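Input set for joint prediction.
Command: fold jointly, output tokens.
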Amino acid sequence: MNELRPRSVAGAGLSLQVNGQPHLYDGDRLRRLADVLRDDLKFTGTKIGCNAGDCGACTVLIDGAQACACLVPIGQCDGAAITTVEGLAEHGRLNDLQRSFLAHGAAQCGICTPGMLMAASDLLARKATPARQEIEDALGGVLCRCTGYQKIVEAVQDVARAAARPAQQGAVGATLAKVDGPAKLTGRESYGADAIPADALFLRVIRSPHPRARFKLGDLDAFVAARPGLLRAFTAKDVPNNGYGIYPKVKDQTVLAIDEVRYRGDPVVAFLGTRAGVEAVREEDAPIRYEMLEPIFGIDAAKAGAPVHADKPGNMLADGGVTHGDAEAALAAAAHVVDVTYETSFVEHAYIEPEAGWAERKGDALELHVSTQNPFQHRDDVAQILGLPKESVRLIATACGGGFGGKLDLNVHPLLGLAAWLTGKKVAYVYTRPESMAASTKRHPARVRVKAGCDAQGRLAGFWSHAELDTGAYASWGPTVANRVPVHAPGPYVVRHAQTRGTAYFTNCPPSGAFRGFGVPQSAIASEAAMDELADRLDMDWLEFRRLNVLRRGDATITGQVLGDSVGIVASIDAVAPSWRAWNAEADAFNAGSARLKHGVGIGCSWYGIGNTSLSNPSEMQIGISAEGRITLYCGAVDIGQGSNTILVQIAAEALGVPAGDIALVVGDTALTLDAGKTSASRQTFVSGKACELAALDLKAKLAALGGRAKLRDLPPDNRGDALSGFGRFDPPTTPLDANGQGDPYACYGFATQVALVEVDLDLGTVKVLKIAAAHDVGRAINPQQVEGQIQGGTAQGIGLALMEEYLPGRTENLHDYLIPTIGDMPEMTCFIVEDPTVHGPYGAKGVGEPALISTAPAIFGGIQRAAGVRVTKVPVLPHRLRAAIRAKEGAR
Amino acid sequence: MLGAREAEAPDYVRPDDLAEALRLRRQGAQIIAGGTDFYPVRVGRPLRAPQTTILDLTALAPLRGMAPDGAFHRIGALTTWTEISESALPAQFHCLQAAAREVGGRQIQNRATIGGNLCNASPAADGVPALLALGAEVELLSEAGARRLKLAEFILGPRKTALHDDEILAAILVPRPQGEAISAFYKLGARRYLVISIVMAAGWLDIVDGRIAAARIAIGACSPVAQRLPKLEAELRGRAVDSDLAKLAHAGQLDGLAPIDDVRASAEYRSEAALIVLKRLLAELAP
Ligand SMILES: Cc1cc2nc3c(=O)[nH]c(=O)nc-3n(C[C@H](O)[C@H](O)[C@H](O)COP(=O)(O)OP(=O)(O)OC[C@H]3O[C@@H](n4cnc5c(N)ncnc54)[C@H](O)[C@@H]3O)c2cc1C
Ligand code: FES
Ligand code: FES
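tokens >
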């Protein structure tokens, strides 16, 4: 296990200053500055999102100038002064910029925050009051996947003022600064790769470079023996129960492949060794012989081709639908019928934190520290895979640098567990960016066909749809997506006759899983286009057509669910109506004077059921109080940036009647918290929020019964040191869907309307989103600033989905070929918060995480149609696709 | 003694002496400058092959700085994009400065060098069309001495240059114009920042007595190496600089290009966009 000794030229090491402190360095001078900062000097505030200059998370100052620490050899830092995020706070006090970020809610998951802060520091040193354009130019090299950048720009613009403003206090309804904000702003927050023990060994996985192949392994023992940096190899044979999956009965994904690989990225062999040792393994040298098989790409090939899984002929994973009334008859009788088909692409979550974690065996117990959205299921899965009792596995969620659904599936966990368990060593595993992109789940590509009809007055009469989904090589969340789509297919409208269907097919592509909206964003693109077309048939205003048809209190959905309360869709339309009218007028005026640049305005309405579809999804919370009166919220719900840590503290504070600052938090530790379910389906504010409220009320009642806090001292402390604790459980009331998809699948729905003003360059086919107005019914905004942050961040992902994001296996496995919006791609955004409370949620609150995204692409596509007179039905609408459509139209003229 | 040192080649050297650098180069050392192309191709991989020496050029003062040099303007190979965009340079360098502001983001521009951009020889390198438009030459040094090549003779194909294994690119030399030269750069990408060009173009006009005495127009990302457009250049010569210039561009001038389909755009789109980009470039040069 010898490391290669660095052979730097004779002479002493180099000296540098980091955050004002001198350091001597005598190692390999070609090492990346980022690695030296993180691994040697423990300045782990400098993040690594790509190691390729593409994300900017590693941005530091070198002699005052911003640079990517992943691209600088430490040798170039001889005599240099380096500033990292840890160097910003002065005497433990946030500096003005950090305080402004905190006040503006500019950090969500926080993984990009150090890079943003450093880039902004560079700018502010050059220019104290920069203009917006200067801010964009300075921060353009740092990607953020959570915030939509708006609050970051505001924070930089507002440094002088925000710093002076006192922090807001307060419980429900207040803009309480993130409780974990200071940790994220100072670099103290510890993510999956930040607390790896120095003596940990590393895993390296060799993944299939082919979409489909049989393989044979050669002599791995000899391979390992020939490489002193390696300790051992793992293959499928080492995995006790080599199958996992989301559903109790579908365990089709392997920890390490058995004989056959089904997508480019399928794991084949894992090596354990020193970090340098595993990095030195060249993929092409690994003793794996592949025999290529004809891969299945796309839905049509899946239907006709050989099965991806032998037990699934026809490659159908899931098929479900809703039948409500008689859609066929209604469409036949309708005054106007439109027929629209859209096709979408694989979309990558592109969280800036790649999958990471480490594990350690402690006697008969296994401890995992990982970045996850799903701690309890992941603990159960690891235990099941290793054949251990659940109680032997403890999972401690680290801070999570973005998830968006992509960290609901197992990633590093099973191999970490396996290697730590079998070798007794501490084991770490950090995905590289290309590995993260190749291996992780994607948004389902969908081919959605919609037929919609209305009467002569514009009332929707019938709706038919079929969403065919490319679910990739393994089931992952395919059935959930295939079920959720038909329930939501028509959008938030009254439709008396509907027939909708969702079908998911296996292919030899990356597994499609959960991604913000579970298929609803794809299906809304087609259904909202149909609404535009129907309105056009009637020569009706797009907004008025929608307003006429949307659900109101007392209306039934296509599953027959009567909505008793909390139906804020009309209010959301009315909130954006002034923007709609004003921008349409502006666009007309602009277009009259412009030949090749055209403006257009589009609109999208959406709805989204909060929580799991017709499935129990309880959350359990505990709040303890110690003899000294210390209050702790034990919260199994992980905050992936969306802000549940803060929201849940606010709810507990409100219910207990104490200041939010008095409540300490323990999050996502399977040994100390109860199962709150996954951070998905926009459910944590709603479901865990309610459980938290109930836990607080329970504690309050117990305290009252006890006769006051003074009596706490008489009680013996429990295992967590608390004298008393309150418990709350909430499982949203739903009913199962029958054979026709009828029932009450969700306890409440979020509603939204967005309007987009876009500019199309007819000659180049490029689109710029100029303005977006977004109105979202969230029931009750527990924290208005965080609601806005979700809307802005979701909208940014909607823009990416609409205009630039297309994952192509083997071709866009990095963040320069796979493009997500930068700070310069965001429109001017106005958010309207609509509060139509639900009786079920905490203080009336619903969720907003996924609703944030659904309306954006439809609104943009409507705008493009108005501007250019064409619809591009292949998404994303890349310049060459839009230009081809414009060319066809101009040629036809 | 000498033999011993040669047997145990150092991993990494950052000399401040050019002669030492050239000697290491003769012994097979591989070069790093700003590192912005070096590290991204080594993600999750060893940083160097066993027994190779990495020669870091960044301490070599003679490779830095920009200054007039006889009939040329000399730009040291180590000059960063930020230095280029923020320096006061003659008007003809406008295209290069505009290109500099489009390379990656600010943290890339602060470190990435113009020499690295040329030596890396990416078909989408933004510096190349700008320097072709400027008529740049490169100065290559080795222990055997210096040689000069026109930029078009230096960049031979994707990732392929005429640099010899023992050479260092020392400087870029841009000839002085006859009259008042102006230039412009236009980049088309699929997002605002950090984006690899779908098409980019640079144009340079040397104006004497209100007429175009010489023109150089180059297009990138539409062929293995960015190309000059001699037909268009010929048609521009002798013209007055007015808003009619944009009308001169037509598809026939682009027949030297060979655009391909890739993840960023289709070949068909590239051909079409190239012409649009060209027209906009000319419109910018002569509004
Ligand atoms: C996120 C990101 C975005 C980028 N965006 C753009 C962009 O928009 N447009 C663009 O054009 N480029 C872009 N680049 C590429 C890159 O920044 C440039 O090509 C840069 O100018 C290379 O310079 P360097 O000093 O960093 O080269 P290095 O990485 O140090 O070296 C590059 C290559 O050139 C050789 N080399 C360097 N200097 C010399 C020399 N003086 N003599 C001989 N050989 C030498 C090296 O051996 C190496 O092979 C981007 C890069 C990143 C990481
Ligand atoms: S880690 Fe350095 S830019 Fe992404
Ligand atoms: S807050 Fe920017 S990436 Fe999460």
